[in-house]
Amino acid sequence: MSAPDIGDRVRNALGAVRDPCMTAAGLDLSVVDLGLLRDVRATPDRIDVDVTFTEPGCPFSHRLLDELHRALESLPEGGHTHLNIVWSPPWTPADMTPAARHQFDAARRRLGPGATRTIPVEEISR
Questions:
Q1: 3-state secondary structure of 29
Q2: 44 vs 46: CA distance, rounded Å
Q3: Cα separation of 17 and 70, whole Å?
Q4: Rounded distance, CA 1 to CA 71, Å?
Q5: Residue-level pLDDT at 124
Q6: What average pLDDT does range 27-49 have in this prediction?
Q7: Are 37 and 71 within 8 A, CB to CB?
Q8: pLDDT at 117
Q9: ∠ at Cα 80 (29, 70), nearest 5°?
């Protein structure tokens, strides 16, 4: 089996891993849809995956890493895997697939203007 076949199977397996924040928001977006998967280097003996998060303080990062590990371990080559967390370049919504951006934008339109807002620090400290 060639390395590209393995890489495709890795991407497919990780495409089944849903982002917990998106799921909580009612969106069915995977780490692949969101563009969190940065690079896959695969051989018949080893799988290395570079992944990022939408923000460094993501409260679901441990859960997401666990699910990514489980997805990789389900592959025949999954015994020799390594996940690397990378922060450069930082994630932006431009990293999403066009279909994911469409789903995300549709959800924002459903919320309507003013549904969310940034709260100034002065209001929090009162």
A1: coil
A2: 6
A3: 9
A4: 20
A5: 47
A6: 90
A7: no
A8: 52
A9: 35
Pairing of strands 81-85, 47-51: parallel
Per-residue pLDDT, averaged over 54-77, amounts to 88
From residue 84, give the alpha-carbon distance in Å to each of 67, 74, 110: 14, 18, 36
E strand intervals along 21-104? 37-42, 47-51, 81-85
41's tokens = 């280097």
Half-sphere exposure of 62 (CA within 13 A, CB side): 1
Share of the chain above pLDDT 90, in %: 40
Inter-CA distances, 42 with 14, 32, 53, 75, 117, Å: 13, 16, 21, 12, 43
Geometric angle at alpha carbon 51, from 83 and 1, rounded to 5°? 65
| Tokens (6 digits) for 28 | 């069915």
Nearest to 31 by CA among 48, 11, 47: 11
Q: Model pTM? A: 0.78
What's phi and psi for 17, nearest 5 deg?
-85, 115
Q: What is the tens place of the pLDDT at every residue in 80-117?
A: 889 999 999 999 889 999 999 988 888 878 777 665 55
